[in-house]
Amino acid sequence: xxxxxxxxxxQGRASFEQWKEAARREQNPxxxxxxxxxxxxxxxxxxxLHLLEQKAPGPGVEVRVAPWGAVKILDGPASDPxxxxxxxxxxxxxxxxxxxxxxxxxxxxxxxxxxxxxxxxRDDLSSLLPLY
Length: 132
What we know:
The protein is an alpha+beta fold. It has a single domain (6-113), classed as Nonspecific Lipid-transfer Protein, Chain A. The chain has four helices and four strands. It has helices at residues 9-24, 38-55, 94-102, 107-112, and strands spanning 57-65, 69-73, 88-92, 116-119. Strands 2-1-3-4 form a four-stranded mixed β-sheet. Strand 1 (57-65) and strand 2 form a beta hairpin. Helix 1 (9-24) crosses helix 2 and helix 2 (38-55) crosses helix 3 (94-102). It is globular. The two termini are 24 Å apart.
């Protein structure tokens, strides 16, 4: 199942841009958590995960941004057929993910601050971020 439906891509792009602009207006963009409607943030996350999936397709790493989506990216071993979880998993909060996806913060900044949970050999997405 796709993280976002094709028909929702324009709304997702608009939500992503809206989140980015709101975050940049915050007093400290490096800890940005804009007060936007839940649906705007959800669509921004889904759209950005779609962009990541398009940029680095593959079954090797699962990127989870709960509660709004997860995608599998990068080459590597596929999921174990019994538990469907790949050997590499990265989990992020929505605002952390969106700061990274928009280029407001860097992977090393967020990792150093302890806001990224990553398990496996491929636990660094810095070469893929920001998304555009």
